[in-house]
């Protein structure tokens, strides 16, 4: 099966507390899971039957071996997972307190391998030809990944479907202004953008979903997706806009819900669905992930999404 989606960006090993509602200091045991936004999105797309790969890097350690093995287990190609010889595969601890929005503790010092992507790591023929390319805001937070991702977008030439996950994490940036310049600058090179209100404000200077969508469409996007939490999801195209209500679930862990949403967005775009159907489907996928513990392991199947819908 030929590759349908290539995601580019973060990878790591998530360590989830097996005790919920307590501070990190009181956690006694953790469960290991594959993590990182771009990686989780690829896994979520693969769960829905899409042929996916992730372009990223790990360290020359046991966790790096685990990442490749886990990707294969999820039917995601590890062909473009490189190795940064002098760095360690990142680990991330989360604290399920509160479960809906768990604090994260990133171990990515002095820099994460996935932010050391260079031109030599990139499969340029895939970048040009793959039906869907997925890039992230974090991917332009530092060099050399910043210049590499910029060249990737320039090479792609705004081909359909080129998707930007706004993916703003404050700890990866020196200032909001720097993040706005770098993340906002990518809007001129993509066809789709997806993010929450905070991420939209970082990218285009306003947290108002409609105004943010207007500003994105003015930059030439064909689809803007603004996640509004309990108020649902706004989807906007040059031809119209719609708000899809949220799916109500009991939240176990909010982490990874956006990545489940992203994988379903990929599936919907590649299927040629209309924006409302895509948003409803992605909403359901995100809700199912939020009702479970872990990220990659929690990504739903098409049958599970259809059942919730």
TrEMBL record:
It holds the Pfam family PfkB. It is an enzyme of class 2 (transferase). It comes from the Bacteria. The keyword Kinase applies. CDD domains: KdgK. InterPro entries: Myo_inos_IolC (IPR030830), Myo_inos_IolC-like_sf (IPR023314), PfkB_Carbo_kinase (IPR050306), PfkB_dom (IPR011611), Ribo/fructo_kinase (IPR002139), Ribokinase-like (IPR029056). Gene3D superfamilies: 3.40.1190.20, putative 5-dehydro-2- deoxygluconokinase. Keywords: ATP-binding, Kinase, Nucleotide-binding, Transferase. The keyword Ligase does not apply. Its EC number is 2.7.1.92. GO terms for molecular function: 5-dehydro-2-deoxygluconokinase activity. Residues 6-301 form the Carbohydrate kinase PfkB domain. Belongs to the carbohydrate kinase PfkB family. This is 5-dehydro-2-deoxygluconokinase. It comes from Amycolatopsis heterodermiae. The gene is iolC.
